[in-house]
Amino acid sequence: MIGIFDSGVGGLTVTRWVRQVIPEASIIYVADQGYAPYGNRPQWQLQQRCDHIADWLIGQGAHLIVIACNTATAHCIDNLRDRLNVPIVGVEPGIKPAALGSQKGSIGILATENTLASERYRTLAAKFNPETLIINQPCPGLADAVEQGPDHPDIHRLLHTYVPGLAAAGIDRLVLGCTHYPLVADQIQALAGDQITLIDTGKAIAAEVKRRYQARPEPSVVRLITTAEDDRLKGLVQSWPELSLAFAGASFETAEDSLL
Question: Of 75, 62, 61, 58, whose CA–CA distance to 7 is shortest?
Fold first, then answer.
């Protein structure tokens, strides 16, 4: 079983790729919506939630954990790897493919404040300086707006605040540094313009999961669990076209008390 978690529905953009490349796997996904958003949580609380969810997933039978959240990966993956004896795959902003593919030597990063402030992110970005100009754009509120559904008015307002300035700066690659952002990729692309290529690492992450996955005799089922109300998670999945087809047939559950 593969255990995957994020603060909300964003990590499902990674999970859908995992399902495509390992269709035979059993997957249990935790949307920690009762504690969302992660993007502005203090370090101690992020670590507490990551520890708690990872332990619960292992207790459910997960033998591989995916942290499908850039913020949680940036701040918590090292401690989890030190403590747990299962493979743990995280997500990071796709600076490397963006930098290597840039013709102008200038790329933009859309990410949460916590991701951009992390030591892990600074170390990653430093590997490509000074050859590549990296323009960081923190996006407070955007993941939370996406978490409210595709019709939430803050999505439009926030994207118009964050994206045009990056496009005007002369970048030719724009990294989606939060797993929620692929859900609004079309809107980001429209604001950025066709001359800018969006970088989403979901497919590459799924490939790494497949490399480390060891098949077990288990049914191919998908359980989607939320620390809020299951009707909320189900409604959100059904309202995002990118998710509704990918998770048709999945079960929706409210978390048991031990996960709260």
Answer: 75
